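Example record used in the benchmark description.
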Amino acid sequence: MRRALTLLVMIVSLTAQPAEAYLHLTSSTGSTQTPLKWNQTRVRWFATDRGVAGVTAGQFQTAVAAGFATWEAVPTASVAFQFVGFTSAAPFDDDGISTFGFDAQPDLDRVLGATSFVVDRLTGEIVESDVFFNSIFTWSTAAAGDASRFDLQSVATHEIGHFVGLGHSAIGETEIRPDGGRRVIASGAVMFPISLGRGTTADRTLQPDDIAGVSDLYPDDDFDDTTGAISGRVVRNGTGVIGAHVIAFNPKTGVIIGGFSIGAGGTFQIAGLTPGAHVIRVEPLDDADIDSFFSPNGIDVDFQVTLLPRLIVAPAGGASDRFDVSVRPK
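Model output (structure tokens):
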């Protein structure tokens, strides 16, 4: 008998809701962490047959399908999707089908969308996943966006990242608003947890961190042989730092891919890197709420931003020798 676990991931908040820069969602069995992923060759999904003001059911399905096509087009990943049809079912119904649709959630007044999962807790296999888009906000499917509405395809592309098993990325910069929320100054990943705002369509396009994350979870035949990884540890006074954000920057390509020191003793590994030398930067998670990435218990943010004083080489088809990054208290 399948042992099911139901999870809910709320994302694309209008305030801080920020994690490993690409972070894989996991289920826990005892001390074992198992990445969530689909084991189907082609993942099936349905769209609700109800639209909202300004977006018909057909326009909704087209925008979500475009989001799916963006992830399916990643050349280094092997994951595919199939639209099955429209349904009268609502997202989050326990019905054995994966449904995308609108739903009004006024109590979630800073949440544009959320993704739920039913998973086999022993294997991490995703059995069902539903995604809702909060209809208390106004939405657009206009090709160039609408300055007064949120772009449905952009938010769908983010949510589909969760749908396939990715958590949030911390590659982005924000500033505090007078009302206590955050404004995004820059974002380096579709999976950054805070919306770029109304009218913006930039998140229709995946960035290197998103591509590395989905490729690491669903690698094609050549991915492991043609990319490299770095492996290390973040320490302060010899003790591992848990929850530090680690960034690998390739000065030759200009690509930034990140990770988190969430292993025992502050260890981290970032895969999917172009082979070659990388600059390593470590920073505290202070651009958004820690619980957007993982449980805040034990997460350390009391240290200074640190650059490793040497380059680290990611070898093709393997990982670097493990190295330490020593940080100092603020």
